Amino acid sequence: MLGALRSAVRELCQRYPDQYWRELDVARAYPEAFVQELTDAGYMATLIPEEYGGAGLGVTEAAAILEEIHHCGANAAACHAQMYIMGTLLRHGSEAQKREYLPRIASGKIRLQAFGVSEPDSGSDTTQLKTTAVRESDRYIINGKKIWISRAEHSDLMLLVERTTPADEVAKRTDGLSTILVDLRQAVGHGLTIRPIRTMMNHATTELFFDNLEVPVANLVGEEGKGFRYLLDSLNAERVLIASECIGDARWFIERACRYANERVVFGKPIGRNQGIQFPIARAYANLEAARLMVSRAAELFDSGAACGAEANMAKLLAADASWEAANVAVQTYGGFGFAEEYDIERKFRETRLYQVAPVSTNLILSYLAEHVLELPRSY
Ligand SMILES: Cc1cc2nc3c(=O)[nH]c(=O)nc-3n(C[C@H](O)[C@H](O)[C@H](O)COP(=O)(O)OP(=O)(O)OC[C@H]3O[C@@H](n4cnc5c(N)ncnc54)[C@H](O)[C@@H]3O)c2cc1C
Q: Whole-angstrom Cα distance, residue 146 to residue 252?
């Protein structure tokens, strides 16, 4: 089953060759055709239960899809969020919300691609976020700003995390945050302004400014004040899925590096005959395979409903390190051509660098492991 799924994804991706991604990268344009085809093929509805029109599969299958997309040199960052944001709606949304949104998301009529957590002033300390939603009869009035909110210009819905009870009125600093679905089509121009941020890679990320945006109370997902808990729930899926993209990137870099090392002749022999070229590629391969085992383990635990915080975090850490090592090795193997746009190595190198920082930075994963697994003192 997984093998057939992987082949089908690869077949689709072959219709979007290097040149497609290269041109979009130069223009910093959104891969609309690619995302539409993935949606039409049903891949973006992998985690939606069958009763709501989805495939009803698990994170294991979703991870395989994202890995293959990246293994083909493509980039799922344009659409991966729909897979992990979905978890909050599935687990904590009301039946009415699921009936209203899931079938239309599954069929591709609407997109749930934006996840609004990060803010300029709170950084990794999510409990300190400042955006507020104040209830006034049947509406929430939202004020504040968000940064790095990817795909907001290409999504119909955004899951927004904001404060509904002031920080000085809650018992625990993780209390008082809530998750609200914002209909971006209605919000833009009526209290929400989206400003794109140009980044080192093509990522469609933005800043958001909320100025008395009104959202119906019916859009609250789950209970008011419990948003931080819901956020943690979806983060494990996010870590595993992003880790699988890193695995795909690492495979792509290693395959390209091997191909080039066999073809490129210098001093009368292929550069791949030199152990100075072979060994870094072989080491990157070993690290990739080790990371891959951790990703499968984390996905398996997630799908069985078991606790997987440690494994999901380790999967993200090891896979992001493996893809970054493979990226570096590929640049070194390609020599000067590693820097030329037409070889695509430099583009993927820029793309995979992100995963040391986002969606969670390496230091924060190490802190999690130190504190929650190794029982070392909390550092922050
Ligand atoms: C291209 C891109 C897309 C993104 N997309 C989204 C999105 O769609 N939605 C969204 O909500 N967010 C998104 N983000 C935000 C991303 O999740 C954050 O950038 C990331 O979590 C790091 O937060 P920060 O940038 O505020 O860094 P900071 O928290 O300011 O940290 C800066 C550095 O300090 C380190 N640091 C901070 N505290 C500690 C500590 N206690 N111990 C050790 N080191 C520490 C960090 O590891 C990091 O290296 C995106 C970011 C980027 C760059």
A: 33
- Tell me, what's the pLDDT at 234? 86
Of 312, 301, 178, 308, give the one whose Cα is nearest residue 238.
Answer: 312
DSSP-based three-state secondary structure for 150: strand
- pLDDT tens digits along 101-125: 999 999 999 999 999 999 999 999 9
Residues 205 and 12: their CA atoms lie apart, in Å, by: 25
Residue 4's contacts (CB-CB under 8 Å, 6 or more residues apart) are none
Q: Would you say 187 and 166 are in contact if contact means Cβ atoms under 8 Å apart?
A: no
> How far, in Å, from the CA of 309 to the mean position of ligand 1?
19
* pLDDT at position 179: 97
- For residues 321-355, b (16+ Cβ closer than 10 Å) or e, as one string? bbbbbbbbbbbebbeeebeeeebbbbbbbbbbbbb
Ligand 1 atom with least separation from CA of 124: 29
User: Is this structure's pTM higher than 0.85?
Assistant: yes
The percentage of the chain sitting over the pLDDT mark of 90, rounded to a whole number, equals 96
Determine contact, residues 209/253, Cβ cutoff 8 Å: no
Pocket test for ligand 1, best of 148, 157, 230, 231 (most atoms within 8 A of CB): 148
